[in-house]
Design goal:
The model is unreliable at 1-18 (pLDDT under 50). Helix 4 packs antiparallel against helix 11 (404-422), helix 5 packs across helix 7 (252-269) and helix 9 crosses helix 11 (404-422). The protein is α+β, with helices and mostly antiparallel strands and 611 residues long. It has 12 helices and 31 strands.
Length: 611
């Protein structure tokens, strides 16, 4: 009986731990997005330009939309299905939608797409926001050796690869043909002298569960920086509804053209030596929800791989109209790699129109990298007029792939972007530099115009140039310059801000070789006026001293900030207008702390002792 009770108690505790809410939160701007990723109450699993999907330990109805109260309890994934509002009543017959918007629905578990590859599996894994401190080279003129590489891209070679993959008839994610295609791609990479791995992974899809045809990963080692990588990739699986009953899914444009670009890039680039390593990928099971690239990008993050950037290759053979052009798909959170791609295009192919677009009908493997902290971009054929034959038996050379000249230019852009970053041997190494450390606000002073104390530490060593100074940015504009002194570690600057106002601040470390590294962005705000004596007397904080818990009674409590004796911010908790709040402080080192309590009527500081 005792064992049964212990088991039931453990089961109950386990249920409490797992009882998290699956939520959607809208946001605006990079600073707000960073707040969500840093919020200890949230685990972000997937994000777009306007919203995050996360599990929350505490649900906040004012900020969140509840999707599921038992997050991932009975399912491995949630599926975001791109489906227009008008088609949702038909698509959702027999399905339980957790959320419906104008462009997509969220469904529990794995589910079939509405059309094409418009489904993204949201896994129970913690997402990571790509950092904006990674520098991409600024290309001002052609490198003659890279131009030599670009001139070697052969349309016949591209067509031969597309034809070879098309000839399988179909490459469904777990079919014998898909496994054979994986083996064939691996053989091609091995013949080029790459370090080749076939990464096995398991997929639980709407068409069943099991081992998917493995990813193929080929590595060309850099001579100076072998542990820093630039990556390109494509998926090799195909899909059509006809193939589910024995029909064809030739997948010429989607995505034999992408595989052809990756293999042609490898054929040419392996003839040269580069300072940085280049990785060539071919993924399985993309059509079911990006499973293959998720498996690889997740592993890269777990192993701490230093990936400079990721370039996706998916559908580049259907030309709409008569002018070749490139539509670049990527979230605003990875803007630097998008800017870099367009910079390369302006130098090597100034006649080629390239534009950044938002696509709300599908997704591809760059998203897996963006979700795991790496900057990834997706150059795509016309996003409004892409091939109408994909996911049908007519995805063939001639109908769906009607311009190998366009595929050639996409491949050339892929090579140019990889080579400029990987740096052919003999070129001047790329400059790189480190950001400042420990940027934060000290306790501000309350006045009608408030003083805001910013403090930070000098960057780590290891940058290519010498540190010269720090630029202080407020709302994207430089407001001050603080000179670097090699004798100092700690720096500070005082700005003034009006009561009730907010501004975004970051510190830019500026180096002699032109390299600049920004700190994280923080929100500085003018805290409201001090409480009246009557209102202050109604605020109660107990017990004080305390060892574990601290009870706070304050009408309309919005925020609690804890500062240590040095004035450094330890923690901030958004309370949301409660009148009573309990805070855990048992893990704080013993000593004096200041609580800054922000309420509807004003602000008050309280000193506490943790013993």
């Amino acid at each position: 009986m005792k064992r049964i009770c212990i088991f039931l108690l453990a089961l109950t505790m386990s249920s409490v731990v797992m009882a998290k809410d699956f939520v959607r939160i809208s946001y605006s701007g990079r600073a707000e997005l960073e707040k969500h990723f840093a919020d200890p109450n949230l685990t972000v699993h997937y994000y777009t330009d306007f919203e995050v999907f996360a599990t929350a330990e505490r649900f906040d109805g004012q900020k969140m939309i509840l999707l599921d109260s038992q997050a991932f309890a009975n399912n491995e994934v949630y599926t975001l299905v791109y489906c227009p509002k008008t088609a949702q009543p038909t698509y959702l017959q027999g399905k339980d939608a957790l959320l419906q918007t104008d462009d997509y629905v969220i469904v529990r578990g794995a589910t079939m797409p509405y059309k094409n590859d418009g489904a993204v599996a949201i896994f129970n894994k913690k997402a990571t926001l790509p950092k904006l401190t990674r520098d991409f080279p600024v290309v001002t003129e052609e490198d003659p050796r890279i131009r030599e590489m670009l001139n070697q891209v052969n349309m016949d070679s591209l067509e031969a690869t597309v034809q070879r993959l098309q000839d399988y008839g179909q490459r469904l994610w777990n079919s014998d043909n898909a496994f054979a295609a994986s083996d064939w791609i691996a053989g091609r990479m091995q013949a080029l002298g790459l370090e080749v791995e076939q990464q096995a992974f398991y997929a639980n899809t709407w068409l069943g569960s099991g081992q998917a045809a493995p990813n193929v990963i080929g590595i060309q080692r850099g001579t100076l920086y072998p542990d820093t990588y630039v990556v390109c990739g494509s998926h090799f699986d195909s899909f059509s509804y006809q193939a589910m009953s024995g029909g064809a899914a030739p997948g010429a444009d989607d995505n034999a053209t992408g595989v052809a670009s990756v293999l042609e890039s490898a054929r040419i680039l392996t003839q040269y030596e580069f300072e940085y390593s280049i990785v060539y990928c071919a993924y399985g099971c993309e059509e079911m929800g990006l499973y293959g690239s998720e498996a690889y990008a997740s592993r890269c993050q777990q192993e701490g791989m230093d990936i400079i950037g990721y370039f996706n290759n998916d559908m580049n053979g259907y030309l709409y109209g008569d002018q070749i052009h490139i539509d670049c798909i990527y979230p605003n959170s990875v803007e630097p790699i998008g800017t870099y791609y367009m910079n390369v295009g302006e130098v090597y192919y100034p006649e080629l129109p390239i534009r950044h677009v938002n696509f709300n009908e599908g997704d591809s493997d760059h998203t897996s990298f963006n979700n795991h902290g790496y900057m990834g971009i997706y150059p795509f054929e016309d996003y409004q007029n892409y091939s109408p034959y994909i996911h049908t038996p007519n995805d063939l050379i001639g109908t769906s792939v009607n311009s190998f000249e366009m595929s050639q230019q996409y491949c050339q852009m892929n090579i140019a972007c990889l080579a400029e970053i990987a740096n052919p041997m003999g070129e001047t190494p790329q400059v790189y530099c480190n950001p400042v450390m420990n940027f934060e606000f000290a306790i501000p002073i309350d006045k009608e115009v408030m003083e805001l104390y910013m403090i930070w530490d000098a960057p780590e060593e290891g940058s290519t140039g010498e540190l010269q100074h720090f630029d202080v940015y407020r709302d994207s504009a430089v407001i001050a310059t603080v000179q670097y002194d090699p004798n100092f570690i700690h720096y500070e600057y005082i700005d003034t801000i009006s009561i009730g106002a907010q501004a975004e601040y970051f510190i830019m470390a500026v180096y002699s070789d032109g390299c600049e590294a920004p700190s994280e962005t923080l929100i500085g705000e003018g805290i409201p006026h001090q409480l009246s004596e009557m209102d202050a007397n109604s605020v109660s904080v107990y017990p004080n001293p305390t060892e574990n818990q601290l009870n706070i009674e304050a009408k309309g409590l919005q925020r609690v900030s804890v500062y240590n004796a040095m004035g450094q911010l330890v923690k901030t908790v958004e309370v949301g207008g409660q009148d009573q709040f309990t805070m855990e402080v048992g893990n704080y080192p013993t000593g004096l702390y200041t609580l800054r309590l922000v309420m509807d009527k004003g602000v008050i500081n309280k000193t506490i002792v943790v013993k």
